[in-house]
TrEMBL record:
It comes from the Eukaryota. InterPro entries: BTB/POZ_dom (IPR000210), SKP1/BTB/POZ_sf (IPR011333). Residues 7-76 form the BTB domain. This is BTB domain-containing protein. PROSITE patterns: BTB. Residues 121-180 are annotated as: Disordered. It comes from Oleoguttula mirabilis. SUPFAM superfamilies: POZ domain.
């Protein structure tokens, strides 16, 4: 274990280049992408830095928490608020997806401004820390060339800063929205884990999503945009897509939302699931109740057996 913890490296995430310090040996244990990103970049006497421009700061912070705690952290209300600026600017200015596994440095479609209000880092134990205060527009103006896109981004950040003034006060509707933010965030985290080939994080994210459903969380499929994002980012055979189909088949009622807002493939998959159940004379049940591992991606049967044994011991 010690050899995993003897060298640290800096990962600069997003266009904001938010620095995260991580133990190199530990992160390289989790997937070919990180091994490829770090191998060969370390030179004696030099700090190792890797840039992941297309990654979301929020996803990466949650990944690091999982890396050190081996459990998925559910963001608090204040964490959702603090990450919202990164996410809003990112969504507004990039249409790109994460680079595929093994690509090393990600290429960017368009520049993003720094969040500005506070730059954050994650320490070795996964705690979020404020590390710097910066004005986003100032940072951006000095770092990026002036063109139409950058003006739009600068304007977006300034708007967000103005909106953010006084947002420490609790929003009356925030509790209701928080679950939805968390659901979005977990779907995004799965997409991150899928792109970066981190199967343990994928599995833990699915376990959390299903346990929250069993605790009467609202349906993930209530949000057609969320379903669309999953279907456009993941394969139809992926655990989240299979989960979404099963959830809709089990729980959707007569008060359906506008089906036209959902991906056609998703609606076809839901219909197929209902028809298959009917032809087999079975009722529809949550697919994970008998065997959670049906939504896991285990490397071998030994890992699956250990996973089932651990679940029985809960
Ligand atoms: Zn399992």
């Amino acid at each position: 274990m010690h050899e995993c913890l003897d060298t640290t490296a800096t990962v600069l995430v997003g266009f904001e280049r938010v620095p995260f310090i991580v133990h190199k040996g530990l992160i390289c244990r989790y997937g070919d992408f990180f091994r490829g990103a770090f191998d060969g970049r370390f030179k004696e006497g030099k700090d190792m830095e890797v840039e992941l421009k297309l990654d979301s700061v929020k996803d990466f912070a949650l990944f690091l928490h999982w890396l050190y705690a081996q459990s998925v952290h559910v963001p608090t209300t204040s964490e959702h608020k603090k990450y919202a600026v990164y996410e809003d600017v990112r969504k507004a200015t990039t249409k790109s997806k994460l680079a595929p596994i093994g690509s090393g440095h990600a290429e960017v479609d368009s520049p993003l401004a720094r969040e500005g209000i506070e730059e954050r880092s994650v320490s070795a134990d996964g705690d979020l820390e404020n590390s710097k205060n910066t004005t986003a527009a100032e940072e951006f103006a000095s770092a990026a060339p002036e063109d139409t896109t950058t003006k739009e981004i600068s304007s977006t950040v300034q708007d967000r800063e103005a909106e953010g003034q006084g947002t420490d006060d609790e929003d009356p509707g925030v509790d209701q929205k928080e679950d939805e933010q968390t659901q979005d965030c977990l779907v995004d985290l799965f997409v991150f884990a899928d792109c970066r080939g981190v199967s343990g994080l994928r599995n833990n994210t699915m376990s959390l999503l299903t346990s929250q459903r069993d605790s009467d969380w609202s349906l993930l499929t209530e949000d057609s945009e969320r379903v669309g994002r999953a279907y456009s980012s993941l394969s139809q055979g992926s655990a989240p897509c299979r989960y979404l189909v099963n959830e809709a088949a089990c729980w959707w009622g007569a008060d359906l939302a506008d089906l036209g807002d959902y991906p056609t493939d998703f609606i076809a998959d839901v219909l197929r699931a209902v028809l298959v159940a009917r032809s087999e004379g079975k009722g529809l049940e949550p697919m994970w109740h008998d065997n959670m591992c049906i939504l896991h991606d285990h490397v071998d049967t030994a890992e699956e057996t250990a996973c089932k044994a651990a679940k029985k011991g809960d």
